[in-house]
Amino acid sequence: MDTTGTSKKNSVGIVDTRYFTFERLDFRSGKTLSPVTLAYETYGSLNNNKSNAILIAHALSGSAHAAGYYSEQDTHPGWWDLYIGPGKPFDTDKYFILCSNVIGGCSGSTGPSSINPETGRPFGLDFPMVTIMDIVNAQWHLIRHLGIEKILSIAGGSMGGMQALKWAIAYPEMVNSVIAIATSASLSAQGIALNEVGRQAIMNDPNWNDGNYYGSKGPDAGLSLARMIGHITYLSEKHMHEKFGRRFKEEDLATASFKQAFMVESYLHYQGVKFVDRFDANSYLYITKAIDYFDLKKDYGSLHNAFVQVLANFLVISFTSDWLYPSAQLKEIVQALRANGKNVMYTDIETDMGHDTFLLDYEPLKRNISNFLKREFERISRT
User: Fold this and answer.
1) How far is CA 183 from the centre of its chain?
2) Other C-beta atoms within 10 Å of 244: how many?
3) Domain containing residue 204
4) Per annotation, catalytic residue among 205, 220, 280, 322
């Protein structure tokens, strides 16, 4: 357990990022990587029979830092801190919570910004192309390293939900249950198109230099623009209208320019600049491509076939205002699971907050997760 006391209410406390290195990872592309390091954090404690472990899978811009703080002075908790901690849906008084940074990432796990041992320089575009299967296989090494034979639940939203689905398919004997939120069995053509626009923003930045920008000024403008584009997709039109409307930051036409006249423009620029401070542009390219390549129908012949061998119970959650991963895509997953006779709970939550609802303090989502985990933990405890 890597937590200590803290004054912050209902927090897991002060946390540390740990690192696990294993010898070799074989990628779906046929390439191999050796050695491989995953950054991870844990919250709570494993019980005696190691039956209370929950793997949290992060989305595109996430990291291993899912909860807690790095110091008493830290004012920015982990990305899912609202949901992980004592008495929260992922209750650390009952469960052992684990989150790792994905392979190809830039928050401690091996990725394109890591040093290539063969050259002594950052990998850049020499890094192998990453898929969701590769991400899951890397997590499998970490899970086995921790001595966990079966995971109580794997939970994630967006790309995290893709990982959860893939886990249940690839390692059915290891997964007791899945919580898949605001995700899909394959990204839509519109979603792929938006990802490509973001990638082009990066690759057309003069500082990108074919991915070899390490040690010099990077493609900050391109990465910032990619984030701005992506952030628009995470919100609904109604939420953006309620949050910003057509409010001006500067309304005087006599002095007006093309610089952030509206509040919504200022907000997007802020999100872009903030993102550049913590994310690597090449990781953005690789991870968005991994999302694009994810296609359960193509990989298994049909969505029905994809779920034939799964043994897990499922909680599937969509949001009515999510236009990036619309409810119809999650209903399709539910139908395929039920056609295979699998145990599925599904809820389409009414909300105006869009795709990013799963990151907000939203009581209906918290209640669904809490109740599902309680039932699953009681069920395995009886058996």
Assistant:
1) 10
2) 16
3) 194-286
4) 322
Amino acid 185: pLDDT: 98
Residue with tokens 């499922």: 314
Catalytic residue among 158, 184, 318, 321: 158
Residue 158 annotated in active site:
yes
Clarify whether 231 is annotated catalytic: no
Q: Per the structure, how many domains does the chain have?
A: 2
> Last residue of some domain: 260, 286, 312?
286
- Give me the catalytic one of 58, 65, 141, 355: 355
What pLDDT score does 255 carry? 58
Alpha helices by DSSP H, listed for the chain, are 132-145, 159-170, 189-203, 220-234, 237-243, 263-276, 281-293, 296-300, 303-306, 327-339, 363-382
DSSP SS3 for 60:
coil
- Give the pLDDT confidence of 73-106 residue by residue, as tens digits: 999 999 999 999 999 999 999 999 999 999 999 9
Q: Same domain, yes or no, for 88 and 110?
A: yes
Mark whether 361 is an active-site residue: no
